[in-house]
Amino acid sequence: MRKKVTVVGAGNVGANCALRIADQELADVVLVDVVEGIPQGKALDILQSGPIQGYDVQITGANNYEPTAHSDIVVITAGFPRKPGMSRDDLLLANYEVVRTATEQAVKYSPNAILILVTNPLDAMCWTAYQVSKFSKNRVIGMAGVLDTARYRTFVAQELGVSMENVSAMVLGGHGDTMVPLVRLTSVSGIPLTELLDQASIDRLVQRTRDGGAEIVRYLKTGSAYYAPSAATVEMVESILKDKKKVLPCSALLEGEYGINGLFVGVPVKLGANGIEKIYELKLTDDEKAQLERSAAAVKELVDVIQQKAGA
Ligand code: APR
């Protein structure tokens, strides 16, 4: 039987996820959005690329969740961008409401699905979906680390003038200014990065990675990145649907790993047919550990706001 993926939010990230899933012929796709006509129109447009691109998958658009029934994966990209005058907390609470209702509806129709969260602030939205869905922790996963790592790999490859494919790296932590690129474990075809670049250059690339999302927002002005975010999401979708067991940095519920409890934070995981099949607990240096703790504290602050103001 064909696999089925629901993508909630037919905006820039959601529509590009649908397009990439279709292009790779991974599954039938249902695009859901609150705006009438947008998911239907974009679904039809993507479907009509099929004869040219050579894919045979069904793409459907909807404003309700009935057509999403029995999805294998539900990707949640729905949300609001930050508007002028909106505080971070306002945005947090607005997107909390969106993710809460989307999760409620999606899991009602697909109780066995795996949830992939993309909406920001990512780690707090994973926590929301986990609370609302009551799914086991292996079935609630956040997309952030794959994107942050891709940005870091791009900058390293550009700096050295080498193939991006040769750069192997891992960015841990929450999706935000406090993310933790593991420089010590970054290599180019096995050669440690520290043997190829001086510390000042490495620091510059790490900082550019941390600011990677903001750099694009500065150019776009009215929106945030979506090509690389959708590519990162679909790498996770593929690893799950094909049971590839890729080891990728994803936001996962930690229950004591890395000394963190009850929070979603980016860590290396094995992604297969059962979602998160293993969390890898690396031996970190004291400095890396301190950075990860700082990042987890930033995630906790957001979860605390949700608990206090939304009574979750
Ligand atoms: N249910 C379904 N869709 C919704 C809902 C809802 N309750 N609320 C809003 N949406 C839809 C909007 O109508 C819009 O089409 O979510 C879509 C969001 O699309 P964009 O504004 O284009 O945002 P996008 O760039 O796709 O980013 C989505 O992903 O990377 C993150 O930070 C980003 O949180 C943001 C999310």
Structural notes for this entry:
By secondary structure, the protein is of the alpha/beta class. The protein has two domains: about 5-140, Rossmann fold (3-Layer(aba) Sandwich); about 145-310, Alpha-Beta Complex (L-2-Hydroxyisocaproate Dehydrogenase, Chain A, domain 2). It is about 45% helix and about 20% strand. The chain has ten helices and 14 strands. The chain has helices at about 10-25, 40-45, 50-55, 90-110, 120-135, 145-160, 200-210, 210-220, 225-240, 285-310; strands spanning about 5-10, 30, 60, 75, 115, 140, 165-170, 170, 180, 185-190, 190, 245-255, 260-270, 275-280. The strands form four sheets. It has a six-stranded parallel sheet with strand order 3-2-1-4-5-6, sandwiched between helices. Strands 7-10-11 form a three-stranded antiparallel sheet. The protein is globular and about 55 Å long. The protein binds adenosine-5-diphosphoribose. Adenosine-5-diphosphoribose (APR) binds next to helix 1 and helix 4. Adenosine-5-diphosphoribose binds near residues 33 and 224.
